Amino acid sequence: MVYALSQVACGATFYVSHINADAGLAKRLQEMGFVRQAPVVKTTDQGTVICQVGHTKVVLSREIAEQIFVQAVAIPTSSELTLDKLKPGQKARVVRFATDDQSVFILQEMGITHHEILELVRVAPLGDPIEVRIRGYELSLRREQARHIFVELIP
Predict the structure, then answer these.
(1) N or C: which end of the chain has fewer CB atoms below 10 A?
(2) Is 147 exposed, middle or buried (0-12, 13-18, 19+ CB in 10 A)?
(3) What would the mean pLDDT of 48-72 be, rounded to a whole number?
C-alpha cells in the first residue's frame, strides 16, 4: 500500500515509492535523499513534518510531504527470500532492500543494487561471513547485512 508521507504514523519506517511533484521540486527532494527505496522515518508531525531520510533529518511543509509517497517495510513475498538464506552455488536477482537499517546505502555503494544478479560463493565455517559474486568480483558480507537484501532465485 502506498501512502503520502503526511499521512503515515510517526516512528515507523517506510521506504520512498515515488514523488508526485513538478520536476524542480522532485529534483530538489531527490537531492535531499528522497530517492526510490530510501528509508524514511517520520519523527514529528506538528504543522511541519520532520523526518529522517537515510542519514539526514529533513523538515518539510505538510504540502510537500503530501507529494512524497512511501510504502511500509514489507516481509518477503512467496517468491522472495533474503540473501542470508541462499546456499552456495545458488544464483539470485536483487529485488529490494529492507529499510529498517541505515546500512542499506553502504550495500548499494558496494555494488549490490536492484536487479543485479549475484551468486553465493561460500560460507565461512562458522556461518559468518558469506561471500557473494556480483559484477565480476567477490564480496564478503556479514549475515546481518545479508538479511536486509531480498532476492529471487534464478533457476
Answers:
(1) C
(2) middle
(3) 90
